[in-house]
Amino acid sequence: MHDQWTLKKRLSVAFAAILLVSGALLTFATVNINKLIGTVGWNTHTYEVLQESEIMLLNMVNIETGLRGFVAAGDEKFLEPLTQGQAAFKAAFDRVKKLTSDNPAQQARLDKMMANHVQFMAVATALKALRADVTAGKASIDELLTEFKLGKDKAAMDAFRAGVAEFSRVEADLLVTRSADMDKAASLTTRILTLGGLAWLCL
Length: 203
Fold this sequence. Notes:
By secondary structure, the chain is mostly helical. It has one domain (about 1-200): Four Helix Bundle (Hemerythrin (Met), subunit A), CATH 1.20.120. The protein is built from five helices and no strands.
């Protein structure tokens, strides 16, 4: 009778240990998998932010191209990329502004980039008006060249490019950090599950 009770007790303890180890492994795996899923989601979010910043830059280049074409030729057909670029830039800016609403530092960088954009557009408006005056005979080509050579548009564009580069670098750094965290979490999960599996087999 004593031996039977001892056997039952041992079986009960072993079964309880198996349940405990299994439960612990399941809980650990679930928590880490959820963390990995969350990190993947944030990485996807960051890629979206980077894509929108590239779209902003692309459309600023289109705006610049349209402006320079119009200044050089005086033909309004060259303003098409400028007009389209303005609308596309605004749409991309609004999207990336929303995507980074939880990041005050990136919001500040975006505000600075928008200020550079506004500065560029002010210069563009002045050059467009002067070019139109030249075409209409109200101003000389020398006046236009003198104003254009000041490089005000280039200065604003260079500042915008620098802003995009800094903004994108911060986002890229986040990807690097998260990737390192994912690797650590995956490695730890593998080790724990392996050790847990061995412990389970020994019970």
